[in-house]
Structure formats: C-alpha cells, structure tokens
Amino acid sequence: MSLLKKLAKIILALIVAYAVARFAVVFYDSRLTGARAPYIQTLTPHSVVIRWMTEENQLGIVRFGEDPQLLSSIEMESSPTNNHTVKLDGLKPATRYYYQTGTISGFYQKSIERQWFYTHPETVQPTRIWLIGDSGKAGEIQSQVRDSALQWMQQNPLPAPAATDDDAAEKSPSPPVNVWLALGDIAYRSGSNQQFQESLFEPYAELLPNTALWPVYGNHDDRRWTYFRIFDLPENAEAGGVPSGTENYYAIDYSNIHFVILDSQASDRDKDGDMADWLRRDLAQNKKPWVIAAFHHPPYSKGSHDSDNTSDSRGRMQDMRENILPILEAGGVDLVFTGHSHMYERSHLIDCAYGDSQSFSLDNIVSGGVKNKSRQYLKPLNKKSHQGAVYVVAGSSAKVDQGSLDHPVHYVGLQEAGSVIVDVVDDKLTARFINNEGQVRDEFSITKQADYDGGYRGCAD
Ligand SMILES: [Fe+2]
Fold first, then answer.
1. How many whole angstroms from 55 Cα to the centroid of ligand 1?
2. What CATH architecture applies to the domain 36-118?
3. Peptide bond into 22 cis (omega under 30)
C-alpha cells in the first residue's frame, strides 16, 4: 500500500472517530437532566404555562396570586416527573401575578422577586417587542447585546398604558418587554439540552421567569431533540389566530398586533403545503391592524448567507421568498423578521419582490406617501393587502460574520452585533437596532393613516 493510501485511511479513521465522539457528547448532553429554574411559556390574557426541571422525579406544584404575600391559588401535576409543566388558567387579563414552584413538601424559592408574569391585555396598549436573533452562543457579545438593549429600554420607557386607575397601574405594572421573540438558532451548535442551558437559560435568567419567550425554529435548533421538549407553544391557537396543529408554527395576538411565527427549517415550505394553508386561513381571519411575521431564513440577505444562492441552506431562503411572502403580503404584513445571517440588514418599504436580487427594481419600492424615503413610512389604515412591508435580518445577537451587505432590497446593512426593539403605540410603529454598545444604529417608523389612500398594486395575482 502506498504511503498516500495509508495516510488517507488514517485521516478517514480520524474523521469517523471525531464524528462518533461528537455525536456521543451531543447525545449525552441532550438528556433532559439537571435542575432548571422556573420559566414561563404561552402567556395569554387568561393563562400561562410554568415550566421547570428538578434532579429527581417529583409531583410539581405552583402556588400563585396577585398579592406576593398571599399566593392563595394552587395548581399541581397529575404524575411525578423531573421536567415540570403546570398550566394556570382562569386568570384576569393585563394583571401581574406572582408565583412559586415546589412540591407537596415545600416550595423551592425563598424570594419571588423575579417570579411574576403579566397576562396579555385584551385592550389596545402601548407595546414593546424585543427581538434577538441567532442568540445561541454564550459569551461577551451575547451579554453586551442583552445588557445594552435592556438598559436602553429602561432609559427610554414606553408611555404608560391608559390605566383604568392609578392604583391598578401601581399594583400591576406592565413589564419592560411585552413580547419577546428569538429568531432561531437559540442554542449553538447542536441544540442540545446542555447547550440550551448555557446559551439561553443561564444568560437570560433574569427574564425567563417573568417574560414568555416566543421562539422561532432555526437550523441549529433542529439538530437534536430538545427544542420541543423545553418550549410549550400554542398549537391550538391558545394565544390567538387559527389553530396550527403543530408547535412548529403558530400565532400570537397582543394588543393591536397579530404575530405569525413560521418554520422555515423543518416544515413544508410549498405554496400549497400545510403551513401555507394555515397562514392563509390565519391571516384571513385577522382583525388586528398590525401584522408582524418571524421566521429563521431570510428571503433577502447578502450577509453570512446569500439568498440568491439556491444551494445555500438548501434553498430555504428562496422557498420562503417565492412561496410564503406572497401570502404574507396579501395578508397585510407590515414587518418581517428573520435571522440566520449574522448581521443586521433592513429593507425599504417593499412589495412583490419574489425573485433574486437581479430582478429587484425600483417598482418594488412602495414610495407613495413616504415622508422621508427611507425612515418614515406611511401606510393606509383601512387597506391591508400589498401596501408594503419592511424586511429585517437581525441575526447578530451573539456573533457577527462577514458578508457583502449589498442586496438592493436593503437600505441598511451593518456588520455589528445587536438586537431590535419595536414599539407600537396606536397607529405608529417604531423599530430600532441597538448595537452591543447601546447605540441606536438604525431607526425607522411606519404610521397608519386613515386619510392616506396608499396604492394597491395587486401584482401577486
Ligand atoms: Fe441559522
């Protein structure tokens, strides 16, 4: 045997050994073991799901109430487990509740300072949305992005809700973040339980007990089997919209906003597939004036992924652009958030751009009524279909990669770490990209005006 052949055999053996060892580590790390502090899921006007984990199998109990000194209501599990799920029902909307978790023999937490939640309102209230993208790499950048966004929010509070009375507002303060979205790739590199612990539960420990995280399914979350065992998502329209029958994609209503969370990774992306069918039915029933969509793979990106390259991410970017965007735009979508490219890209107000970057033209830019061509957009209040949407790629909440950032759809491209804060106050939406140093590096607004006619384009038919 020639020396070259011997060398090739050795290299092959090393590669196989590495792959086996790596799989074994991820398999071991994916077991749902160990203790995990309480976190909340599927928060709605009348219910919430409390999750936590314990070392041993136990019968979990939650006690809760509006008065932190008197948690007078109790819910418990029906059988012992180490991965606990307790749903609290029959709650009042727009109300702060406190809770404690434990077992029949006692409650774990002495302090419940972090353990509260604020049920979704049933009326229109100023709303703050925080979006993190590709956040799953623990480290300095992730902490800086988190801290700079939270600090900015603290320094720039939303106007207080039109409180029914001051006592109620004081007793039940609205939280700093009303809707928290993670745009996928929440735990690098393989979405194992241990990686979720290090990349999500530990760095976001202050927020998770009191702010429901609404996740988007990313390619790294899909590599192992943890995601659906740690998140409880509204497949039966518990939080609004039409039942999707799957936790892969779902809807959320909050105040005057309808959110659709889509799965660009593992679900059928065909225009006649189950997800497309659900999306059409969901958007057709929606009565909320604002529509925000989120999924992982960007329809337009020249970042660390190229949406023109049909073999990049196995064509998922192209599939979403060609098959799903027409449904979203016909359904009146205002804002579309994605991640996957580890940078920030933000489009003009555009419509009907379903081809590659070469086919994009100025005709796709919805310019009617624009006060400032690139930052302050107007849309009609009473028309929905094809009035323009802004597309945002925000995948730099834990790391930044390289890219040409020259997709013609986009007005802004930044190779910077950060996250996005969106404020919706009645008919005005303002979005800001806050970098890891706390600077506002992009800001734009969309205002919906009753006396503005817009310009129906009707291209999709
Ligand atoms: Fe990704």
1. 32
2. Sandwich (2.60)
3. no
Q: Give yes or no for a contact between 281 and 269, defined as CB atoms under 8 angstroms apart.
A: no
Distance (angstroms) between ligand 1 centre and the Cα of 132 equals: 13
Q: What's the mean pLDDT in 362-380?
A: 79
Cβ atoms of 37 and 84 within 8 Å: the answer is: no
Q: Separation of 265 CA from ligand 1 center, angstroms?
A: 9
* Ligand 1 center to 393 CA (angstroms): 11
pLDDT at residue 395, as a whole number = 98
The 3-state DSSP class for residue 434 equals: strand
Is this model's pTM higher than 0.85 or not? yes
CATH 2.60.40.10 residue ranges in the chain? Answer: 36-118
One of 3.20.20.140, 3.40.1390.30, 1.10.10.10, 3.60.21.10 is the CATH number of 127-449, namely 3.60.21.10
Provide mean pLDDT across the span 391-410: 97
Q: Mean pLDDT, to the nearest integer, of 321-335?
A: 97
Torsion angle in degrees (nearest 10) through CA of 177, 179, 185, 189: 50
CA–CA dist 376, 343 (Å, integer): 23
